[in-house]
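P.,

For your records, the input lines for the assembly:
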Amino acid sequence: MNKTIIDVQNICKTFKITKRKSGFKGSISNIFHPEYEHKKAVNDISFKIREGEMVGFIGPNGAGKSTTVKMLSGILYPDSGSINIAGYVPYKQRKEYVANIGVVFGQKSQISWDLSPLDSYEVIKHIYKIPDRKYKENIERFTELLDMQKFIKQPVRQLSLGQRMRADIAAALLHSPKIVFFDEPTIGIDVVGKEKIRSFIKTLNKTDNITMIFTTHDMQDIEKTCERLIIIDDGKKLYDGSLDSIKRNYVSSRIIEAEFEELPEKIDIDNVTVSNVDNNKMKKLITFDTNSKGINLLMSELLNNYNIKDISVKEPEIDAIIRDIYEGKIIVH
Amino acid sequence: MKDIFSLFFAYAKSGLKTRFQYKLDSVVATLAVFLREAAGIIAMYFALLKFDTINNWNINELMFLFSLIFITYGIFIVFFMALRDFSDWIKHGDIDRVMLRPRGILTQLVLCGADWLAALGHGTLGIVLFILSANNVGVEWNAETILYYIVSIASGVLIQGAVFLFFSAISIYFIETQSLKEIMYWNLRKFAGYPISIYNKFIQSLLIFVVPFAFVNYFPAQFLLRKPDMAAYPEWFMYISPFVGIILYALAYLFWKFSMRFYKSTGN
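Structure tokens returned:
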């Protein structure tokens, strides 16, 4: 087992937000008697991450993901609790600490719009004091791995979003950080572009043993890259474990898609819900709970009593599971 | 130190490269700044053909006074442009990126944000005014006066840097500070070109004690020119003038340091 590199204990962060009163009178009184609301953005979150792990951080908007990542990266102080990453306390030893991390914001490029990626890398080299040799090696390697030969000398404004994102990822890795935070790195990128980015991230995680933390809304990102998943909602940690074990342990409903040869007047089976698939009346979705209805029984009931052309059992979709978790329909612990 | 210079040059190189992506615009930008500011001076020149002096200051002395404003501002925007536009940095969340880099926050802001072309426009105008006036204002240029002049320029840059460092610290609490800057800096700067003795007491005290432009040009110029209107102010103002910049900057820096602890990054 690798050693723990990120150790977060009971962190909390509360923001003071001015309550906006409506109307002219309200806005005047806002100036003189502001009323504040305290919003607990992060409420007692703890976790440990081992060196070389790749962890997905998910949660609905406003769940506290960004605040947590900002505390981990040294931008915000936690109100209470402790953070120790690679031997540093991020918010106390900012300068020393950030030399060890890289951060990629999908929505916020760190390379200059009017310059080529290579021009921006030159500046980054000086900011991080990257030795010439290491700089050259890294540029060569990332150009190859991220397939950037074609556009590394072109102004960024002429690049596609996917190319720009790849250039941005390389920028965050030039100083060979031990830990990299990705904040929605595939947002707005087409399927092929997303695949390229995911496979690069995965390769790098394996070859360089870089610890990676990934926040995203795209469950495909998580499914394809992360072994471990941390779900945050309402400032609290809801789940911490593997994606598979969510599917195995917490989701007992399954869906059978059945296509009928001839449509029965009524599908009369206990403990299931039947719904239509788009406009095709012959196809039905039959949702059932494995705890209250055995799949064997259901299958034989279907096949014996109805005239069925085609039948398949569907895996629960991860997006739907996560939605159910956010909405409290599935309680994980 | 060597490392700071190399970072400064790396930023300067990329900044200039960015500007020269748009070659026409960069040439025009420099010229536009130069002409815009020079127009004010030319207007003053024609007015003085009629009046001869303003409060006993003749055209050469006034150009000398103005040259200090332009030269200090030209240097100011090489180092303090990021602080001048700091509320935009906060609004767009760019400070987060600065904090993620292993350098001092203020170091990065001071080194990165030069507007070289505007600096060239202001600086050139300042130097032209200085050359036109320096030998016609009765100053004997010896080691002492040259040293005083150079230190005063540095102090003048720092005074304006301190003012914007102070505004930047305020932006940490209130985010938008454009109107405050408009009133306290840009409007007062228009007054500051002329000898402050022509204004009423209120504006004079603003220029001496609140946003001390008087220490950027008026008092340093008085040390060298010794005009009679200096009698209205304590004589020691001329002697402390070279030190006002560093003192104000130190105070503004402490306030900035204190305020940065309250920085809340803007949400996504």
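Two observations worth noting. Chain B has a mean pLDDT of 89. The two ends of chain B are 36 Å apart (CA to CA).

Regards
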